[in-house]
Structure formats: C-alpha cells, structure tokens
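Consider the following input, taken from an annotated entry for SDR family NAD(P)-dependent oxidoreductase (Nonomuraea montanisoli).
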Amino acid sequence: MSKTFLITGVSTGLGLAVARRALAAGHRVAGTVRTEQHADAFRALDPDRARAFILDLSDADRIDPTVRAAEAELGPIDVLVANAGYGLEGTFEESSMDDLRRQFEINVFGTVATVKAVLPGMRERRGGHIFVITSMGGHTTFPGLAFYEGSKHALEGITDTLAQEVNQFGVRVTAVAPGAFKTDWAGRSLVRAPRSIADYDALFDPIRTRRQALAGQGIGDPDRAGDAILTLLDAERPPVHVLLGSDALRLVAAGRRRVQDDFDAWEELSRSTDSTEGGVTVA
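Applying the prediction step yields:
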C-alpha cells in the first residue's frame, strides 16, 4: 500500500537514495533541501508524487510548519526518515564549543524536533514508522570525530527510549547506523576544524589525510541502503537498531569488545560500590 514519506536531507547521499527507492516503489515523498536548485531537482524526480520543502534544521521554528505543509500536500506522514545532518572532524581539544553546539543543534536538536513534529499524528492514528539515521559512530568511536560521534550516540539513546515508549501505539522506531558509503559525507559534507596543536600531528594528520583521500569510496551502496529501509518498513517486527554495511558490523563489534573488556576487567570494583544494606534497582 502506498505511504507518505517525509525524508530530511534529500539533496544527495543516503537521503536522496532512499527517496528514489520510495518513489520507485509507488510511495509519495516529501523531501527537505536547503536550496531552490536542489528543490527543483527533487521535484523533477516525480512531479506527481515528489514534493520539496526548503528547511535548515538549525531553524527550529520552521520544522513544525514544514511538516504541516508537507501533510497538507501529500497527506499524513506515515514514514519519517530523519536523515539530515553533517559531520565535524577535529580532535577534541582543537574543536571549539561553538563547533559542539552547532553539531548538536543540527544532528540532535533538529532531528528530535522533526520526530516530535510527526509523532503526535502517528500516535493518534496508531501507526507509523520513524527511521533515525545515526552512524556506526553512534556505537563505536574513532579519533577526530568526538563531537560527531557524541551526537550520534545521543540519537541512539534517544531512539531506543522512544521506541520503548511508543511501541504500545503501533509506532515503530528504528535507528539506522550506516558504515562508510559512497556519498560525500567525508568530502563536501564534512566540516574540518583547523589544526593548531602540534602534539596531535603524529596521530591525527594521517587520519585526516586518509579520510580526504577515501571520500566517496566507502563500501556501502546508497541505493542498496534505500532498499534496506523499504525492507525494514515491510518487516512484521522491525529492529530498533540496525547496522548497514559489513564495515559497520566489523568495527562496531570490535568497539563493543573493547568496552566489554573494561567492564569485565573491573567487575569486582563495580560490584564493590553496592550498599551493604541492600536496596532496589531501577529495573
């Protein structure tokens, strides 16, 4: 059955790929972009079922009116793909507090505001699916991406909690964590903090050089990611968390082993902090 999608960030990359696959499957798609040029290009994909809306997620006051405008043209939103966002590369010490605020303003606050704009309707209709595009960096970490990965960890936690709250209403929530895809994430879409501290040269300069050289050459295929989203949409019991890409599977597993190794090594210390008088647990 045809559904109405709202996909944020459909100018390029995963957002555009998901939109194309959804349109090809006969769905209606409202997509957000940041320029009129991209809006015209998106409408041209399917003049009957594709609608484009100018939206910058940093403009929080425009998010709810944009959702209402999309619904006025295409009908109630059945599927949200909260995809828009960007990456910030830089060592923790060299990245500014303004960098951190901007990263969270777009990736976290803008995404959450979009989810909050569609959720009441889904809850009232007792149905819908919310996809939040996070990153493998929401499950593991790599040097030079502290603020970006912090924003994606935040989304993973928020999404997991949301899923537990709205499952009772028939609203499905899935955090989709891609690995490296053939997109411009590490190219045009990646903001790079300037270098200023020589102590980090040996660690970080090779990492930055490699990311620049390999931009757009990830193992992931955006069109196949679009197909994966549609498969999850049709699933009887879709997951709350899913990884996209064999690199994501490998790297997240390695990161989780590092964390578990710490937990195991210090288990006795962890248990030593329990009260000798007993007590209750939160769950």
